[in-house]
Write a structure and sequence with these properties.
The chain is mainly beta. Helices cover 9% and strands 39% of the residues. A hairpin with a 4-residue loop joins strand 1 and strand 2.
Length: 163
């Protein structure tokens, strides 16, 4: 008897789309981790380069297909490592070929020693204004990106003086 009572509810849940995601998985354009802002209003792609100790934030539209500019001069990110917290100030990297400026930009970068060699990083975007909305204390967790296979190392190795 109990099973029969649940069947209509299961049908209603499926019909209303409750708990079911109809959106397709969106791939991060730069190989990082997508962080959704406000139920798809915008996205931030976090890319961790552990070799350089650099974290890059790409501010994107809700579908993660196009850059979305913000008028912030800096994005503060609060990072956690164990029981310690760090503030990382990410500076704008304007694409001048697209008319971006420091105060109208979609890419931000910051470096920190704590990021060197990190396999993943956990933190919060303290504040971000994008797509005419404010987002506060947005959590994220991203893994370090792997260098592209077959690509040369960005750091030149000095010649061996003995060899």
């Amino acid at each position: 008897m109990e099973q029969k009572l649940w069947r209509p509810w299961i049908g209603m849940v499926g019909l209303l789309g409750l708990g079911v995601s109809h959106s397709q998985a969106v791939e991060a354009p730069h190989g990082g981790t997508l962080v959704e802002l406000g139920r798809g209003a915008a996205q931030v792609e976090m890319v961790l380069d552990a070799d350089e100790g650099e974290l890059t934030a790409y501010v994107l539209d809700g579908g993660a297909g196009k850059p979305a500019r913000t008028t912030q001069g800096v994005i503060r990110v609060d990072l956690k490592e164990g029981d310690k917290s760090y503030k990382l100030m990410m500076r704008p990297v304007p694409d001048r070929s697209k008319g971006e400026t420091k105060w109208d930009c979609s890419e931000f970068r910051g470096t920190a020693k704590v990021l060197v060699g990190a396999e993943d990083v956990e933190g919060r975007i303290f504040f971000l204004h994008v797509e005419q909305r404010n987002f506060k204390r947005v959590p994220f967790d991203c893994k370090a990106t792997e260098p592209a296979s077959g690509s040369p190392s960005p750091v030149a190795t000095p010649p061996d003086p003995q060899g």
